[in-house]
């Protein structure tokens, strides 16, 4: 796989972006959105899903990730012709990693698996059903917990691989070395995961998209999809 990536980086990147988008479109055409309620939203019908610090760091992670993915992809397309991109990407990467780590550690208790997560996992959250019955979940459902731990591992892998690859050559041949390829492949995995996360949050569960605006979502949504979560006052 490493060898294939080393000689077909652009192809692997284009596939990692276009195939998940095509998969999301296919899912949407087949199952459509799982809207709970978009009527009658007022001050009394909303609950705070993200505190102000969580809301800011979620935005920072989102913008940081998009910039890293774009500057990483540009290095693949342009090679070394834009010499300043690499150092910019590397410095932003370290800042992004620290912000992501602090944010994720703040959510660690909500991300621990509980007994009630098993039915959710076995039924894949009801995502493959046309009439999904609500499944018990805490602040994060089992799918979000899987996403949490996997993205944490991938981010650690991105940081570690970048530190190792920085010791080697930056020439086009050097960029085909093992840790450059591991870093690039982990970048692809992260991109696929973020596309999936964004698709589920914005399109499949449009009730949650509101969280980006002011950190709040409808109470009807949390009652249905996070029934075991005690909303903080
Ligand atoms: C943990 C945060 C990250 C750090 C510290 C980091 C660091 C780096 C560094 C130091 C380089 C080499 C730049 C150079 O010196 O020329 C690099 C290259 C690259 N990064 Fe990252 N990065 C991070 C996250 C990401 C993410 C999130 C993606 C994509 C979604 C990504 C994709 C890439 C790609 C595609 C390359 C070019 C590899 C090649 O030329 O084969 N990185 N990164």
From TrEMBL:
Going by the entry's taxonomy, the superkingdom of the source organism is recorded as: Bacteria
What organism does this protein naturally occur in? Answer: Sporotomaculum syntrophicum
Q: Which InterPro entries does the entry link to?
A: Cyt_b561_bac/Ni-Hgenase (IPR011577), Di-haem_cyt_TM (IPR016174), FDH_cytochrome_b556_subunit (IPR051817)
Q: Which SUPFAM superfamilies match?
A: Transmembrane di-heme cytochromes (SSF81342)
Keyword Repeat attached: no
What's the protein called, per UniProt?
Answer: Formate dehydrogenase, nitrate-inducible, cytochrome b556(Fdn) subunit
- Do you know which Pfam families this protein is assigned to? Ni_hydr_CYTB (PF01292)
User: Where are the annotated coiled coils located?
Assistant: none
Keywords from the UniProt entry: Cell membrane, Membrane, Transmembrane, Transmembrane helix
Q: What is its main location?
A: membrane
């Amino acid at each position: 796989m490493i060898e294939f990536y080393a000689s077909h980086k652009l192809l692997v990147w284009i596939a990692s972006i276009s195939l998940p988008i095509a998969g999301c479109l296919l899912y949407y055409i087949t199952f459509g959105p799982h809207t709970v309620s978009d009527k009658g939203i007022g001050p009394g019908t909303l609950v705070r899903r993200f505190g102000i610090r969580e809301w800011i760091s979620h935005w920072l992670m989102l913008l940081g990730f998009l910039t890293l993915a774009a500057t990483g992809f540009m290095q693949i397309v342009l090679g070394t012709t834009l010499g300043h991109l690499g150092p910019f990407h590397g410095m932003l990467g370290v800042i992004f990693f620290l912000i992501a780590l602090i944010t994720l550690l703040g959510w660690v208790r909500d991300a621990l698996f509980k007994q009630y997560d098993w039915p959710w996992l076995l039924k894949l959250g009801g995502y493959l059903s046309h009439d999904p019955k609500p499944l018990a979940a805490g602040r994060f459902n089992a799918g979000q917990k899987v996403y949490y731990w996997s993205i944490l591992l991938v981010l650690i892998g991105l940081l570690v691989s970048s530190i190792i690859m920085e010791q080697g050559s930056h020439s086009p041949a050097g960029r085909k070395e093992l840790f450059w390829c591991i870093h690039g492949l982990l970048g692809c995995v992260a991109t696929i995961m973020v596309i999936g996360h964004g698709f589920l949050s914005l399109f499949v569960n449009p009730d949650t998209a509101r969280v980006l605006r002011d950190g709040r979502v409808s109470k009807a949504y949390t009652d249905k999809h996070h029934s075991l979560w005690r909303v903080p006052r």
